[in-house]
Design a protein that fits this description.
Blueprint: H1 7-21, H2 23-26, H3 39-47, H4 51-56
Length: 65
């Protein structure tokens, strides 16, 4: 699978992912586990691949490859 997440997109995903992960420490149990959703944008930013982008045909990466 080709990379389809660009630099700006990666930066936004990292910030959003870390913000969501912080909910693990801010919210009271059991609601704090909603913060685990932050792993999704972090993983897509680190790998540079987003399955949803592939499904809808979006590519924000300048060099696809």
């Amino acid at each position: 699978m080709q990379q389809n997440v660009g630099t700006v997109d990666k930066t936004i995903r990292i910030v959003v992912g870390l913000a969501l992960l912080s909910l693990l420490y801010v919210l009271q149990p059991p609601m704090n586990y909603l913060g685990l959703i932050g792993l999704v944008p972090l993983l897509t930013a680190l790998t540079g691949r987003c399955f949803l982008y592939r499904l809808i045909g979006v590519n924000t990466c300048k060099t696809a490859g």
